[in-house]
Amino acid sequence: MNDATFNSGVLITGAAGFIGSALLRVLADDGVGQVTALDLRDVPPAQQRAGIDYEQGDIRDPALKEIFARVRPRTVVHLASVVAVGGDERRDYEIDVLGTRNVLESCLAAGVQHLIVTSSGAAYGYHADNPVPLRETDPLRGNEDFPYARNKREVEDMLARWRSEHPQLQQTIFRPCTVLGPTTNNQITALFERPVVTGLSGTATPFSLIADSDVVAALAQAVRTGKPGIYNLAGDGTLSLREIAQLNGKPFIPIPPAIMRGALRLLNALGLTKLTAENVKFIQYRPVLDNTRLKSEFGYTPELDARVVFERYRDQRPDLPA
User: Fold this and answer.
1) Residue 76: burial class (beta carbons within 10 Å; 0-12, 13-18, 19+)
2) CA-CA distance, 168 to 129, in Å (whole number)?
3) Which of 26, 110, 176, 202 would suit a FRET pair with 211, their CA atoms being 20 to 30 Å apart?
4) What is the CATH number that goes with domain 4-181+209-235+288-303?
């Protein structure tokens, strides 16, 4: 039976992750129908929430179509993706690009009506001539020498083709900036927490920031309303890396970009870091995202601005010394 009117409920990919697990908590009692949590990781019974169906599966696996066909969700929230920079390039491509294609094909086969995807501000790319701020209508250029940004751009190109070829599958695309919460621990927070925060001379390195709670709230609103569109996901304002260091009580040392590239080239050759010289642009040309469309068209205003987002992270993080 392929009639989409018989589809109901929500399926979340990457449901055991940072944002997915928080979204589950919100949707479990939200009246959106049956909620299905799909993740590569198995969730032990003791950690499972009542009222949620748990499925273990890989978004790259052709068997994903069987899960979608059995669950028949009305809405799919696609969160499963690569979040760390500097991993296995082939694996990252398979997860982000081929995995998303498999999710799209599974949605189409199962008659899913609404797909919500978390893309990334990295899809715009890290470029010296990026507009400030970047709007949703600005071109997605990624970076050919930065696989994370390249993959995000390719995913968005694919989503655009599907919007044209399969309009019956409505899409809501969020492009988050740096997502920060009290438990966030990744390559970006590592920059903030070093004894000495090193930045680049000649650039302020402005960080657009969004609270994890605002990301979850926007996703939940998209599930409830079914509103399609493409929206930057960022709080108001920015913080420079120097300001972040000051707020965190750390000294800040700017380093010329050429010296930073040389240092990363050496450390990478010695096997001491996965980062390469090309990753310098990740700090040098931070995308600053405009959130006007998120507020005016989608109808969501982030509760926390950039400074409050960082202070919340700093003050509530459990593993930092007082």
Assistant:
1) buried
2) 36
3) 202
4) 3.40.50.720
d(CA 28, CA 125): 36
- pLDDT grade, residue 2 (50/70/90)? very low
Two tokens, residue 299 = 């109808």
Instruction: Measure the CA–CA gap between 190 and 180, rounded to whole angstroms.
Output: 12
Structure tokens given for 33 = 């129908």
With tokens 């748990």, the residue in question is 54
Task: Report d(CA 267, CA 198) in Å as an integer.
Answer: 16
Is residue 76 within 8 Å of 114, Cβ to Cβ? yes
The per-residue pLDDT for range 152-211, each reduced to its tens digit, is: 999 999 999 999 999 999 999 999 999 999 999 888 898 898 999 999 999 989 999 999
Whole-structure pTM value: 0.93
Per domain, the residue ranges of the chain are 4-181+209-235+288-303
| The pair of three-digit structure tokens given for residue 176, joined into one six-digit string | 């988050």
**Short-list 284, 230, 279, 226, CA closest to 255:** 284
